[in-house]
Design brief:
Two copies of one chain form a homodimer.
Chain A lengths: L3 E3 L7 E3 L2 H10 L7 E5 L4 E10 L4 E10 L8 E6 L4 H14 L3 E6 L10 H14 L7 E2 L3 E2 H5 L6 E5 L6 E2 H4 L6 E5 L7 H9 L3 E4 L7 H17 L1
Parallel strand pairs in A: 1-3, 6-7, 6-12, 7-8, 7-9, 10-12, 10-13, 11-13
Antiparallel strand pairs in A: 2-5, 3-4, 4-5
Chain lengths: ~230, ~230
């Protein structure tokens, strides 16, 4: 299978691979001039190119042909998930969500979120490698760690949910409308604080459950993501 | 929250915690006589007990009261998944599938399965800790690494699917009937071999897709699991 490289600034003609990708091509894979490679810009374009200049410092490819792919979904999927204490759990979520299909991931800082900083650069690397692995063309947007109040202040889709362990919550599977853009919030271990759930309800978020059992934050986020993606493709 | 311990052979009266659980209780958590603990037998029973004899060698608890929980689903979910080269990916799948809800997991040996042995003992430990974490009472059955032909020779539910990257496959989301027991097979990297898909079709397995993109084995298995679980709870 053709090696794929991520190249956000791709035009026709000659392209310089980003430093990390160039290093992987030349130092790890040891690709040489003449080698055919695939290029993804993460915004729908997939190109076939040929390496024309390879050195320790740089890796230049000539685009032979490129195809623009439409967005993968009619309705956008936005996951906003309380950042987890263990960064690897959140990075795992990103890998899986990118494979299954998601448009935007926001690591949330909530009142009960364990501190521990979100390494967005690492998250983006994980997303890019999942993009290549799953042969997708659209890279989801990955936000920096955002306070819940900042996210709510945004222009969000009308279809808004938050996972909540409450007997009044309705099943997410019944509530989700695959025809409309959606934003789904998943809280931290210990759930959203009452002040937060109040703010969410006031702002038109619907409280939903993802099954009867207690799910880890990243598990709940992935279950919701899988449901939405399969509802749209099903 | 009360510490939970797995205790498969639990009757009323006095119970000896299994060695690993006893070690965790006494050496890690340093629980003492008089401590209240929770016990799970993995077959629906959850008991509250009190430690009555604690030594380096053993940990004995007196069951105070126990509750038998019915099975969590009307229709059983059986995942049979090609074993992955990286054991941690399969163990991760087990953790997540137990959280989301599954009744049986079979690690499959297929023609294209990377060798590398399946550590069922480790898988069971992962399943037990996920059981406790998700506050469930039923532990899924985890099979040893099984050849595909052995699984097919079993008495399996009538609702049978296998994930397959084929244009003739139908969307799993449309096919799955949450009212009936189901077995879902997920192939290895590189998919099932033609001889295997032939054997599956002959044996009444329906070829399904889990969305348009190429999913890793464990990701496909988890997406199918989440779909089935949410269809039953939704």
């Amino acid at each position: 299978m053709m090696h794929l490289f991520f190249c956000p600034d791709m035009e026709s003609g000659l392209v310089n691979l980003p430093e990390e990708e160039a290093h992987h091509a030349t130092q790890v894979l040891r690709l040489a001039v003449g080698q055919r490679i695939g290029l993804l810009n993460g915004r729908g374009t997939r190109a076939e190119a040929e390496l024309v200049d390879v050195s320790r410092k740089r890796c230049v490819a000539m685009v032979l042909e490129s195809v623009d792919h439409p967005a993968e979904r009619n309705a956008r999927i936005h996951l906003a998930v309380a950042h987890t204490k263990q960064a690897d759990r959140f990075e795992w979520l990103i890998e899986k969500a990118v494979e299954i299909g998601v448009d935007r991931i926001t690591p949330l800082a909530t009142m009960r979120t364990e501190r521990g900083r979100a390494r967005v650069d690492r998250m983006e690397r994980v997303a890019i490698s999942a993009l290549k692995q799953s042969q997708r063309t659209w890279l989801p947007q990955i936000d920096p760690l955002s306070p819940l109040s900042d996210l709510i202040a945004e222009q969000l889709p009308d279809q808004r949910y938050f996972g909540h362990l409450d007997h009044l919550s309705i099943p997410f599977a019944d509530a989700y409308d695959p025809a409309a853009h959606a934003v789904v919030l998943i809280g931290p271990e210990g759930d959203f604080a009452p002040a937060e759930t109040g703010m969410l309800l006031v702002n038109g978020f619907v409280s939903v459950t993802l099954g009867q059992s207690r799910l880890r934050t990243e598990t709940a986020a992935l279950a919701a993501c899988a449901w939405m993606s399969l509802r749209q493709s099903g």
